[in-house]
Design goal:
The complex is a heterodimer of chains A (about 525) and B (about 450). With about 525 residues, chain A is α/β, with parallel strands linked by helices. Chain A has 23 helices and 7 strands. Chain A has a 5-stranded mixed beta sheet with strand order 4-3-5-7-6, with helices on both faces. A two-stranded antiparallel sheet of chain A has the order 1-2. The N terminus of chain A is likely disordered. By secondary structure, chain B is α/β, with parallel strands linked by helices. The chains are: A alpha/beta (about 525), B alpha/beta (about 450).
């Protein structure tokens, strides 16, 4: 018999080991199947949200569709790895489900990768528990059901962490090179993955077992630079260096969109309260042990949390890279810390009791995670729900009506960029949000403002107005502004899109979610 | 380029109709046919073509060369065009056509006497001198606009049809041409006490039970020939809406009720009440110098856009034309069809689901070509010899294909530019190479680790 890294027993003899591996293979495979079902179930039921529309529009443009080429700039501040992969799907057909399957694939790939990482750090059972938690975790499922940059980035980030762990455990420089490449790919998915660099640096500082050779570091640096080079190449080719600079300035100077307690508020529901409790318990063990694995995991969690707490802009999906780490720590809490606590406070219980208690708690955790996950997939969108949590009900249907009924060449005014992106993607018509500031320091440089709405309408640069309740809920002021133009310029309601919407009081009702008006000077 | 021979798509008329046409041709410009009762068999709006709604907007005072002389594929000023400052004194040099920097210019003289001077017996070289003699800056006449200034019009021309041999009906200014537009003739002398009596196309339509309306921007019903004040700043209403100089169109409610304010156009179009024939005249946005031409194109395009957004689009022809030359240069000497015309070329756009994209129609037209189309399409009798013998504007359209979906003209010209296509290909190639290389390298690095000893590889310890 052997003891794994956290003291749990596993069979060691040859035949038993094969059997164990077979069971693990089946279990991880089973988790992947469950993860794939949860992530792909009813994938195309609700149309894209604003960000999905942008990335898919860029992908369609990259795939050579001239219509989208005129509506979506290829370079809009983010790197293009995900859009490039979606563009490969779009060469088959421009389809919502095909696009989202790219994110689903990355989401499912994270499950065995987390198992491997957890196993490497704390043994197979922790790896298995962590992978199981991630499989049904609402946070990971919801984000990887959308064609956002975050799920692919988080999976590649996890690959980078795995490579670092292998580098530490093996002491072989090739794993450092693999880390550099994985980090570069993660950066190409979303630039915030650059966090992997300071995270790795912090690991070097706090893990004395890491011994770096200058030659290896230089080679890794070159590989990282080569891996990320498509990003500056995209900027150069697109002639968008000004846009890139403006984007950086805008990000640095943006007003906070949430309070500093934002992540503390969303994480319990997103990750699971029991998971967080188990992770807190596990963290206790990590802080006591302080082996290289523990330090690595603590840095893995702390570096992104510290960065995104300091960063003024907060987003639901931004902390996704630490979700696997939380799952691992929760696994440690369940399999390592819990037995210690049980033995200490209930020494008369049988030897198997801690494992049984842990099993029950794990089952409860998986059920309590699965229920909101399944509910989130199947139920109706709530008014005021956070960006990044799902699609935009009614957006696709309204956009397709626009494509069918509004003459090509028409241009829309919307409350904000959300509806503008939907109109552009599904409606294939130009659209601009009134809430986009004319001040370049106060807006995303990828968006063009309507500098003088009256003049634009009078010069026939705008012919339609689309009002959506999602933007109206966020910006009542700009909703009033837009409705003012409807009145002022002979607005005529030509289309209303209805959808089932859950209100703040949890009641479900059929509501008008999007209105389309004709306007004329 | 559309051939002039494309005309004649309308069904042949009845023998009686042929006889009427022969009579009309015989009486010709004298207009004696004008008083004849309509003899064509009318059936209340049934059309000979898919066009069930004809909308004609008459803007003001520009020649073809002034607006579209540099448009691709048209009969524009030939290379080397240079009009002498004074045809009698070549030593004073000449002026080539040049791009106007201002959207608002001086109002050049454009009456019949100066047009004859500019025409100069067909040499088309008196444009500058004629203005100079009237103490106006003659070189301005050589100025032109293009897609930078008139993107909406140029985009409409790109997407639909542009006529480059459309002549004003008479050598002269607005009033006479507007009369030709509605009646195929222009009256002489002072308006009689009961107003003009000769028939118009609207009489024909009314009698045939075909719906029509005459939309007047900023319409003031109190301004008629009966209280005409030439010095009034609103006197132009009587020039541009000549029906207000006919007693019966003022006194008969059935007729007068069809002369309405332009606001009604938007209501009618939105409600599906667009009449079969609609004439529109502007007020403030006419493009008549010194007005801003960009405002005029916005005004005109807004009318077109409104139609494009309705189901009526599929069976409509929206025609935008300009009433006279406005004093601007045009290089084509107009054919002489009678003692009065033709006048110089004016721009004309045919916007319709049956206008093939980018059509440049070189059929010879004048304002009576509109009458000809109405008469053919709704089976009403000609008014004069002019319209009876004119080419129908139906030649600009192609009824052999299904109606095309409308396309709203963009505010910049050219409208659709896919400048990023090459960049996208380069980016795709860069990402393909980078991703492929990274994936291969990662696999190689990870594969090499297999089989090696790794003291901490599994995290397990004995």
């Amino acid at each position: 018999m052997v003891r794994d890294g956290v003291g749990l027993t596993l069979p060691r003899s040859g035949a038993a080991l094969i059997s164990e591996r077979g069971r693990l293979f089946l279990m991880v495979g089973g988790l992947m199947v469950i993860g794939a079902v949860l992530r792909a179930w009813s994938l195309g039921t609700i149309g894209f949200n604003s960000d999905e529309a942008v990335y898919s529009g860029q992908a369609a443009a990259l795939a050579g569709d001239p219509t989208y080429g005129g509506l979506f700039q290829v370079f809009r501040a983010h790197p293009l790895l995900v859009q490039y992969l979606v563009s490969l799907m779009f060469r088959i057909a421009v389809d919502d489900t095909l696009a989202r399957l790219v994110a689903v694939a990355f989401g499912v790939a994270a499950i065995p990768l987390l198992y491997a990482t957890g196993s490497l750090l704390y043994g197979r059972r922790v790896g298995l528990v962590a992978a199981a938690l991630l499989t049904v975790m609402p946070y990971h499922v919801f984000v990887s059901r959308q064609i956002l940059l975050d799920a692919p980035m988080a999976t590649l980030f996890l690959l980078g962490i795995y490579c670092i762990a292998r580098f530490v455990s093996d002491g072989d420089g090739r794993w450092l090179y693999a880390t550099a490449i994985a980090g570069g790919l993660a950066f190409l998915a979303k630039e915030t993955a650059i966090l992997l660099v300071p995270t790795a640096g912090a690991m070097v500082l706090v893990i004395p077992e890491i011994r770096l050779r200058i030659k290896e570091v230089l080679i890794a640096a070159v590989l990282f630079i080569l891996a990320v080079s498509p990003y500056p190449a995209a900027i150069a080719v697109s002639g968008a260096s000004d846009t890139a600079r403006q984007f950086l300035v805008w990000q640095l100077l943006r007003n906070p969109n949430h309070t500093w307690t934002f992540y503390a508020e969303i994480l319990p529901a997103a990750v699971g309260t029991l998971v967080l409790i188990a992770a807190a318990v596990g963290l206790f063990s990590l802080l006591r042990r302080r082996q290289w694995q523990d330090r690595l995991v603590i840095v893995w969690i702390l570096a992104p949390v510290a960065f995104f707490e300091a960063w003024p802009v907060k987003g639901y999906q931004y902390l996704l890279p630490i979700a696997p780490a939380i799952a691992i720590v929760a696994g440690v809490g369940l399999l390592v810390t819990l037995p210690v606590i049980v033995r200490r406070f209930a020494p008369k219980l049988s030897v198997r009791a801690p494992a049984r208690i842990g099993g029950v708690i794990l089952a409860i955790m998986l059920v309590t995670l699965s229920v909101p996950t399944v509910a989130g997939i199947t139920t109706i969108t709530t008014r005021g729900s956070l960006a990044g949590t799902g699609g935009l009900p009614g957006g696709r249907e309204a956009g397709l009506w626009i494509r069918e009924h509004v003459p090509p060449g028409s241009t829309f005014m919307t409350i904000g960029p959300t509806m503008a992106n939907i109109v552009r993607y599904y409606g294939q018509r130009s659209a601009y949000g009134v809430s986009v500031s004319p001040n370049p320091l106060r807006r995303n440089p990828a968006y063009d403002p309507i500098r003088n709405p009256d003049r634009s309408i009078q010069l026939l640069k705008l012919q339609y107005i689309a009002i959506d309740i999602w933007s109206a809920d966020r910006s009542p002021f700009f909703e009033n502004v837009v409705r003012g133009y409807v009145t002022k310029y002979n607005g005529r309601l030509v289309y209303e899109q209805h959808a089932q919407v859950r209100g703040a009081d949890d009641s479900i009702s059929d509501q008008v979610v999007i209105q389309v008006y004709e306007i004329r000077p | 380029m559309t051939s002039a021979s494309r005309s004649g798509r309308l069904a042949a008329g009845t023998p009686l109709r042929v006889l009427v046409l022969a009579v009309a041709a015989a009486f010709g410009a004298l207009g004696t046919l004008a008083s004849a009762p309509p003899t064509a068999q009318a059936d209340g709006g049934k059309t000979k073509t898919p066009i069930e709604h004809l909308v004609v907007l008459m803007q003001e005072n520009h020649t073809f060369d002034n607006y579209f002389g540099t448009f691709p594929g048209v009969d524009g000023p030939p290379d080397g065009t240079c009009v002498p400052r004074d045809p009698k004194q070549p030593s004073l040099g000449c002026v080539e056509p040049y791009h106007l920097e201002s959207l608002k210019t001086v109002d050049l003289h454009h009456g019949s006497s100066i047009s004859i001077q500019a025409y100069n017996g067909g040499k088309m070289d008196g444009f500058i001198d004629a203005q100079n003699q009237r103490n106006l800056p003659g070189e301005v006449a050589m100025g032109y606009y293009d897609g930078r200034d008139l993107p909406l019009y140029w985009n409409l021309a790109t997407e639909y049809a542009l006529a480059d041999q459309f002549f004003s009906s008479v050598q002269g200014s607005s009033e006479a041409n507007h009369y030709y537009w509605i009646a195929g003739q222009t009256p002489a002398g002072a308006i009689p006490e009961d107003g003009w009596a000769f028939p118009t196309i609207f009489d024909r339509l009314q009698e045939a039970g075909v719906t029509w309306k005459f939309y007047v921007q900023n319409y003031d019903p109190t301004i008629t020939y009966r209280n005409r004040q030439p010095a009034s700043d609103k006197a132009a209403q009587l020039v541009w809406a000549p029906l207000l100089n006919f007693g019966r169109f003022l006194d008969d409610p059935a007729l007068n009720g069809r002369i309405v304010n332009l606001d009604q156009y938007y209501i009618d179009v939105a409600n599906g009440d667009l009449p079969a024939v609609a004439y529109i005249v502007p007020s403030g946005a006419s493009e008549h110098p010194p007005g801003d031409v960009s405002l005029g194109q916005v005004f005109a395009t807004s009318l077109v856009t409104q139609l494009m957004r309705t189901q009526a689009w599929d069976s409509s022809l929206f025609m935008i034309t300009w009433d006279d030359w406005g004093g601007w240069y045009d290089h084509v000497a107009p054919p002489a069809v009678d003692a009065f015309g033709y006048g110089f070329r004016v721009p004309t756009l045919f916007v319709s689901p049956y206008a093939r994209p980018g059509t440049v129609d070189s059929t010879t037209y004048d304002f009576t070509s509109v009458l000809k189309f109405i008469e053919d399409n709704w089976s009403v009798a000609p008014l004069t010899g002019r319209d009876a013998t004119a080419n129908s504007i139906a030649a600009a359209l192609d009824f052999s294909s299904a109606p095309r979906a409308a396309r709203i003209p963009g505010p910049t010209y050219p409208d659709r530019a896919d400048v990023e296509a090459r960049n996208r290909d380069v980016l795709s190639a860069v990402y393909t190479v980078a991703l492929g290389a990274a994936a291969i390298l990662l696999v190689l690095l990870m594969r090499r680790r297999r089989g090696r000893s790794s003291p901490m590889a599994t995290g397990e310890a004995t």
